[in-house]
């Protein structure tokens, strides 16, 4: 289920570190108070990652209740999770696929080319 983003209208990731001991109530509270979003929107997936980047949690409202998803990677380095503070970011389906494959979702910084100096 977590390998394909086609079933979701939107995907949000909680940047930074999330306490992975939180359950449904703790994660919904975080979404409402810290991110000012509604966790009760159908087909919207919220993803969370702790300090150990080999596991993530997903929270999805199904109309009649929440679905709490947990994924642990085996034999990989882990998820390339953005750690820029306590914010939430909406990601595209393409970025979601990159994330699930263990790739970074942040664009690479461009390297500025410097013209060679001519010494006379």
Topology overview:
Layout lengths: L9 E5 L9 H10 L10 E6 L5 E7 L4 E7 L15 E4 L1 H8 L20
Parallel strand pairs: 1-2
Antiparallel strand pairs: 1-5, 2-3, 3-4
Short description:
The protein has 120 residues and is α+β, with helices and mostly antiparallel strands. The protein contains two helices and five strands.
Descriptive labels:
5 strands; 120 residues; alpha+beta; 15% helix; 2 helices; five-stranded mixed β-sheet
Can you tell me about this structure?
The structure is a single chain. The N and C termini lie far apart (about 65 Å). This protein has two helices and five strands; from the N terminus they run βαββββα. A five-stranded mixed β-sheet has the order 4-3-2-1-5. The radius of gyration is 18 Å and the shape is elongated. A hairpin with a 4-residue loop joins strand 3 (about 55-60) and strand 4 (about 65-70). About 20% of the residues are buried. It has about 120 residues and is of the alpha+beta class. The chain has helices at about 25-35, 95-100; strands at about 10-15, 45-50, 55-60, 65-70, 90. The chain has one domain (about 10-100). The model has no long low-confidence stretch (mean pLDDT about 85).
How many domains, in number, for the residues? 1
**Rg over CA atoms:** 18 Å
User: Which class do the helix and strand fractions yield?
Assistant: alpha+beta
Number of strand segments:
5
Instruction: Report mean pLDDT, rounded to a whole number.
Output: 83
Shape: elongated
Main pleated-sheet profile? 5 strands, mixed
Helix content: 10-25%
Portion in strands = 15-25%
Tally of separate helices: 2
The strands making up the biggest β-sheet line up spatially as: 4-3-2-1-5
What is the rounded distance between the termini?
64 Å
User: Ranges with pLDDT <50 over ≥5 residues?
Assistant: none
**Element string (H = helix, E = strand):** EHEEEEH
């Amino acid at each position: 289920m977590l390998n394909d983003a086609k079933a979701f209208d939107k995907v949000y990731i909680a940047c930074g570190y999330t306490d992975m001991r939180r359950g449904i109530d703790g994660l919904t509270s975080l979404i409402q108070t810290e991110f000012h979003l509604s966790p009760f929107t159908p087909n919207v997936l919220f993803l969370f990652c702790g300090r150990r980047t080999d596991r993530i949690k997903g929270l999805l409202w199904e109309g009649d209740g929440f679905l709490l998803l947990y994924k642990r990677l085996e034999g990989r380095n882990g998820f390339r999770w953005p750690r820029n503070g306590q914010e939430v970011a909406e990601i595209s389906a393409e970025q979601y696929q990159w994330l699930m494959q263990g790739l970074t979702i942040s664009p690479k910084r461009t390297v500025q080319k410097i013209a060679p100096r001519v010494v006379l």
